[in-house]
């Protein structure tokens, strides 16, 4: 995200060397979707933190001024208005700057630039993340035309102001100074800086433009314009319910609806201090009925968009504001957030999956129920909401369930015994549940971090073009056969498979779901060119390595690659053998299988598959941890007794 061109090659090594003391918010943003073991400390980060968010497409850099001076002038302007800037950062957003020279000039000036096709969406999300990662009373300055014209953005910024953040807008007035000279002098910047209520930040005088947002007229309205509070104390559970897609029963009163939801969540070991926010573009109740819902802690959110994408954006922002009001330090058990709504795919911009997985990485309980996965006959009033919540998916258990194996001693498996997949909790359904028919495929391309598992881990990266799966085996049989064959060769652990398929013929959605529920991830948009495909696999393996640190597992993780390698065309060129040898040198077990070495008339036959294929593999190294001092003493004592 915020790496300069010259820093991209060393970004991983740089992150490994950073400690939190010298890590900036930009580093946190870069790490937030990568390392599941990275925990943002809850103590105060900076008393005088000031962050500027600048839409560089709305307010471009003038030709007659360099980025260094812009940085200095903005900081001087804020300090001149008595905003402390001992910890000061500027983040710029846009899609027009492509030249590496310009990008390096920004980074050299201390301005971190993020290229994005929807700068406003990215900027608002980072503003919220900044608020979560820093204490209230921090200063947030927004330099954007389009953000100030968006009602939802103003609503979120007003909500941050109500939580103690100082929110400033840069808005030059035509009669005083044109935007072309905005960054030339600190005085011009000070005269163009306003508070959310429309007063000038420097002298509190009224402004001709006042940012307003609709407010709720109900007395007990909970629309996140003000901080939310817990009634019972202890850990919270926030439920965000899309009533448009999953309506409440008409024959139940508000208190009965709340009690039923509370009772069913209690069976799932979720905190019963529940608050429910209901989202519908049209509220079919009178104010008297809404008051009854409010008293039952079911809050119908006002001014909800009818458009699905806009509604998801609103819900995600409210979830972020709820997180601000539910810090981890306030209770011994982590708060939980539950979303009942169908997700959307906006190419990584904003979605429930991205939001909830990020919260899970910050140690919140995160759950998703998609109504489209629930059969209509299961929505009867007498069972409501039993079958809705029975389809709940926990982001702590998606596709990587905790194994019940004891990894101290490996049990010998009989040839005629079927391979058992790791057992999972019976209380919370994972994606293996038949109730969850549409799988969440947001992370099958390793865009998001892989959750940790109990015991060792095996990562299998399979080039399906070089070695297709047998056509007469279903996905579960494919997974089980690979698991058993690797176990016979001494590779033990919770296995996940990434299959690289170039999509000459698209795979039907129902078949993709079967593959993923079996633990086989079909990587989308794998390049047809072999060299590009290997490059993609290498990058994904390095991401897998980042998510599988050696210090987390007692037994070294194993990496299995099924793909034909190719020699580098020039000195220093990278190929699979080179990368895998380096990973083995860092302590990972590595096996490279090149299907071209398999001498069979019908390599796609399932009779001997995949044992015959793994037999031609090249073991690049088997690693084991050194014995503990106690083990060394026991071994020495045993040797002395035997002599």
UniProtKB/TrEMBL annotation:
Residues 50-180, 236-378, 457-596 form the NYN domain. One of its GO terms (biological process) is regulation of gene expression. CDD domains: PIN_limkain_b1_N_like (cd10910). It comes from the Eukaryota. One of its GO terms (molecular function) is RNA nuclease activity. One of its GO terms (cellular component) is peroxisome. PANTHER family: ENDONUCLEASE OR GLYCOSYL HYDROLASE-RELATED, LIMKAIN B LKAP. This is NYN domain limkain-b1-type. It comes from Arabidopsis thaliana x Arabidopsis arenosa. The lineage of its organism: Eukaryota, Viridiplantae, Streptophyta, Embryophyta, Tracheophyta.
């Amino acid at each position: 995200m915020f790496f300069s061109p010259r820093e991209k090659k060393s970004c991983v090594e740089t992150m490994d060397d950073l400690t939190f003391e010298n890590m900036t918010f930009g580093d946190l943003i870069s790490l937030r979707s990568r390392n599941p073991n990275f925990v943002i400390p809850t103590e105060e980060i900076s008393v005088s933190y000031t962050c500027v968010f600048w839409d560089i497409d709305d307010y471009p850099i003038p030709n007659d001024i360099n980025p260094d001076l812009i940085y200095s002038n903005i900081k001087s302007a804020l300090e001149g208005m008595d905003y402390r800037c001992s910890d000061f950062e500027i983040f710029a957003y846009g899609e027009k700057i492509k030249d590496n020279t310009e990008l390096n000039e920004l980074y050299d000036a201390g301005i971190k630039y993020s290229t994005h096709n929807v700068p406003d969406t990215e900027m608002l999300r980072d503003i919220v993340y900044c608020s979560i990662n820093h204490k209230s009373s921090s200063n947030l300055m927004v330099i954007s035309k389009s953000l100030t014209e968006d009602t939802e953005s103003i609503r979120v910024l007003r909500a941050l102001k109500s939580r103690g953040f100082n929110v400033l807008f840069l808005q030059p007035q035509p009669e005083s100074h044109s935007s072309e000279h905005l960054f030339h002098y600190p005085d011009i910047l000070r005269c163009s800086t306003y508070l959310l209520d429309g007063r000038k930040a420097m002298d509190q005088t009224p402004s001709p433009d006042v940012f307003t947002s609709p407010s709720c007229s109900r007395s007990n309205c909970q629309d996140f314009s003000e901080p939310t509070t817990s009634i019972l104390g202890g850990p919270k559970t926030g439920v965000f319910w899309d009533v448009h897609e999953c309506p409440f029963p008409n024959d139940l009163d508000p208190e009965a609806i709340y009690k039923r939801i509370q009772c069913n969540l209690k069976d799932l070991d979720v905190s019963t201090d529940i608050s429910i926010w209901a989202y519908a573009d049209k509220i079919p109740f009178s104010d008297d009925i809404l008051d009854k819902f409010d008293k039952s802690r079911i809050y119908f959110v006002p001014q909800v968009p009818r458009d699905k994408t806009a509604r998801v954006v609103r819900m995600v922002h409210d979830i972020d504001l709820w997180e601000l009001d539910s810090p981890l330090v306030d209770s011994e058990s982590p708060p939980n957030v539950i979303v009942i709504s169908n997700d959307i795919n906006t190419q990584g911009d904003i979605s429930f999956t991205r939001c909830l997985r990020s919260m899970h990485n910050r140690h919140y309980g995160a759950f998703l129920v998609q109504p489209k996965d629930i059969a209509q006959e299961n929505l009867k009033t007498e069972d409501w909401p039993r079958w809705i919540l029975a389809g709940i998916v926990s982001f702590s258990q998606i596709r990587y369930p905790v194994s019940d194996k004891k990894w101290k001693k490996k049990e010998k498996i009989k040839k005629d015994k079927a391979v058992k997949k790791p057992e999972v909790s019976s209380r919370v359904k994972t994606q293996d549940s038949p109730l969850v028919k549409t799988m969440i495929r947001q992370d099958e391309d390793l865009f998001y971090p892989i959750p940790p598992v109990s015991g060792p881990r095996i990562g299998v990266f399979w080039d399906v073009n070089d070695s297709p799966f047998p056509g007469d085996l279903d996905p579960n049989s494919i997974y089980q056969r690979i698991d058993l064959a690797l176990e016979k060769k001494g590779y033990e652990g919770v296995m996940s498979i990434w299959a690289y398929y170039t999509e000459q013929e698209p795979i039907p959605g129902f078949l993709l779901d079967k593959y993923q529920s079996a633990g086989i991830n079909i990587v989308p948009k794998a390049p047809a060119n072999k060299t590009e495909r290997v490059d993609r696999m290498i990058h994904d393996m390095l991401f897998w390595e980042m998510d599988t640190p050696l210090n987390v597992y007692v037994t070294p993780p194993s990496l299995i690659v099924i793909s034909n390698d190719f020699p580098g065309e020039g000195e220093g060129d990278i190929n699979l053998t080179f990368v895998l040898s380096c990973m083995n040198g860092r302590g990972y077990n590595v096996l490279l299988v090149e299907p071209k070495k398999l001498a069979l008339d019908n390599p796609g036959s399932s009779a001997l598959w995949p044992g015959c294929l793994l037999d031609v593999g090249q073991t690049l190294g088997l690693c084991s941890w050194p014995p503990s001092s106690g083990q060394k003493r026991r071994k020495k004592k045993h040797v002395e007794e035997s002599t």
